[in-house]
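Could you please review the protein record set out just below?
***
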Amino acid sequence: MAHLLAEEARTGEEGAKAKDVTDLIDTYLMDLASIAVTNDHRAKAILDPSYTARVYNAYKEHFAAQLPADSPVRALLPADKGRFGVLADFAQLATSVGTNNRGDSIQQPSLPPAAPGATHPGCPGATAAPRSRSRHRTDRADCGITVPGSSSVPASTPAGSPMKAIRSPT
């Protein structure tokens, strides 16, 4: 997803910004860190923001190691986090939830349900041209497309996972 969005930002696709890639990766890493630290009771991650930051940075290092050396995504990786970065993220999240802020850059209204026998723009066999970037937001169920791996759940933490190297504070 990050590679796709980075390419769209590079080519000037409407609504795609390099900051969206950084935000996507940052959100992904914060989700991983807060889930790992708290066994999916994420609000508890704020209780030890320094530890959450260490886990975030370990996952970021692992993520970066998986990128090809020439990947344009490398330049868009978020900065390492410290305890105050974690606290700021939680404060921003609380503010967004409190004000019902749903984001500003990539969120688009969803397409209305298709009429029987019709397809949405962007689906195979559609007669209308897709809206800008809608090919990434089209409800694939309306197209009859199954996204490979979309229902898979990781069986366990990989052996090379950063969580193997970080001990919980006691």
